[in-house]
Request: fold
Amino acid sequence: MDIDSYNHHSFARWLEEWFKDTPCCLCGEIHEVKIHQFVDRNISPDNSRVLIVIRIICNSNFKKREETGEKLQYTITMLPGFLIPHSRVPLPDIYKAMDEYLSGRETIQQEAALIMNCQSRHSFRLYYGRFCKFASKWLSFLSTVFPEIIEKEIVVEIGGKWKQIKKILKGLTVGTMEGLSDSSGLCRRFEYAHTILSGYKMGLGP
Ligand SMILES: [Zn+2]
Reply:
């Protein structure tokens, strides 16, 4: 799902389909997932752009909570892959900034921040710091999920790790992404991989 063609109605339909054979992220069971609420969400650092995201309800946890009084979470916001929890910077902008900064050009952090539409280099440093923290884990995780496309060489330098991650992403063949041109295709693959990594608590969110 890309940021310009995103539409919350089709995302809602997609989620309903998705949860037909995917366990609910709140109770772990497969059951029908209902839309609880549409929520406005700022998706730009200066609050100039708003999208509608979806909060789903898990009736199973809701019922259990009513019956037992246990404080179970029963609603959760579902974000499309280009958004990060608690972040106003869309993932494609972070990808572009990171790529520019780590690809050996003489980009300084302030310039990278501007690519993300942020005024302060600290905004870039926040995501960059998280990336540095997870880069090795991402590589070893991706190498277990996609063993056929992993680089065997272990790189220490952070720019080298970014390069390896991009190489792995290039090898990913995921349905509709195959026809996408190189740079936008890579960014979409990055979103896809990031969604999986977030599920394992290795995302770029807090
Ligand atoms: Zn559930």
The first strand starts at residue 34 and ends at 42.
